[in-house]
Amino acid sequence: MTEKAPRPLVAGNWKMNGLSSALEEIGAIADGAASEAAGDAEVAICPPATLLVLAAETVGGAIALGGQDCHPKESGAHTGDISAEMLAELGASYIIVGHSERRSDHGETDALVQEKAKAAWRAGVVPIVCVGETEAERLEGKALEVVGRQLQDSIPGGATADNLVVAYEPVWAIGTGRTPTNEDIAEMHGHMRKLLIERFGANAEGVRLLYGGSVKPANASEILAIADVNGALVGGASLKAKDFLAICEAYA
Ligand SMILES: O=C[C@H](O)COP(=O)(O)O
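Above: query sequence and glyceraldehyde-3-phosphate SMILES. Below: predicted holo structure tokens.
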């Protein structure tokens, strides 16, 4: 564990889930996050972009909101895309970039992810840069190497504790109910911390390193207590306020 442990962040990634009827859950998350039981972590929800305006009205600043992706450019002829500035205007203070589903569904490279992280900075938003190995890469003993390379190539120069969040999400743990061992998570997070400090200096001790991949109420306390795990990026279990708040309570 680093000496300057940052305030943890528990962020929910709703992926392509949620119509306006889901605002009730977002409201319940905001209400619950404001209560003492929810603990000390910063809480954020990254709903589909279509819900951001309504979500901002619903939560009234009680929790943070984020986008799930952005285009590197501020504006232009990019049909179907959304810019970091647009997300910022809708109330996003975080943008997830480089999620493995974007990398696999849309062929996103580390270089593109880096451009998206820069776009977030340009818009005054903190990127949550996602990295993580596939199961084959882990079985081949390459997990540390792969994630190290993704970190190096996906994060722009100039990262600080205030402008960057990193999420380690082993691809094989996402939505599967499987998680790495606590030792493997500790090893990876320690490795990422070391690499970030080598590149960005001591300030990187404060960069929040989230773990993501099948985080549930039942395993949250154990995972979130691991050294250099400064929060979670939660998929499925963030869709229901009861489950998501139970995860946040790991920091109570
Ligand atoms: O961004 C979130 C992750 O992909 C984790 O998803 P999950 O909690 O459903 O495994």
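The chain has ten helices and eight strands.
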